[in-house]
């Protein structure tokens, strides 16, 4: 069953549960936000790629308007809810400035394998250690979900969008595991190369080989 949802296309992927701060400046989206706030309703952020507005997006709840400017611009805090697929897109809703569309809510299936998460955790520790960003591991629970790490994997917007379209947690974790398995050797080799470059020009104390 489909339903109408105001739409705010952006060149980002918002995952369910993610908190997102936005600065709203265009008149059409100022109108959208003010109407959603007045009606205590939600809106959707479909992913905008090079080819245009994608079919998939995330429903967004406004947590609060943090600041309103004299110009009419505003800063808002939001949170991602569920995932939807656009059935019919309207570039401009009749009588409104913003876009909208008929959307179908999609069910997210939590069917992960514990082993997948264990493997990903180990690869993340190695990756973040090599990059010197170990702090990203501090608040990551052992039972993390794919959405918790999706923005911290070096994915492109297109890759994140592909992940958004996967409705099974096991499939999302498999994509993440495959990605980390491929990039980790490259990152480690790059870091070793950086260290070797740093050594060039320095006095070296090297024991001669014994032969």
UniProtKB/TrEMBL annotation:
This is Peptidase. InterPro entries: Lon_prtase_N, Lon_prtase_N_sf, PUA-like_sf. Residues 2-184 form the Lon N-terminal domain. Gene3D superfamilies: LON domain-like (2.30.130.40). It comes from the Bacteria.
């Amino acid at each position: 069953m489909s339903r109408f949802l105001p739409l705010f296309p952006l060149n980002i992927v918002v995952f369910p549960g993610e908190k997102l701060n936005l600065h709203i400046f265009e008149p059409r989206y100022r109108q959208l936000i003010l109407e959603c706030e007045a009606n205590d309703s939600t809106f959707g952020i479909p992913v905008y790629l090079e080819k245009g507005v994608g079919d998939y997006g995330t429903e967004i709840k406004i947590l609060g308007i943090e600041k309103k400017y004299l110009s009419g611009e505003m800063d808002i805090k939001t949170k991602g809810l569920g995932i939807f697929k656009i059935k019919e897109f309207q570039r401009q809703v009749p009588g409104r400035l913003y876009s909208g569309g008929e959307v179908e809510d999609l069910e997210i299936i939590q069917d992960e394998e514990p082993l997948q998460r264990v493997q990903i955790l180990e690869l993340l520790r190695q990756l973040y250690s090599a990059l010197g960003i170990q702090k990203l591991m501090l608040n990551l629970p052992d039972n993390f979900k794919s959405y918790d790490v999706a923005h911290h994997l070096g994915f492109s917007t297109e890759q994140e969008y592909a992940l958004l379209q996967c409705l099974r947690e096991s499939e999302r974790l498999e994509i993440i595991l495959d990605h980390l398995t491929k990039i980790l050797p490259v990152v480690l080799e790059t870091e070793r190369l950086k260290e070797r470059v740093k050594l060039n020009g320095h006095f070296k104390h090297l024991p001669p080989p014994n032969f």
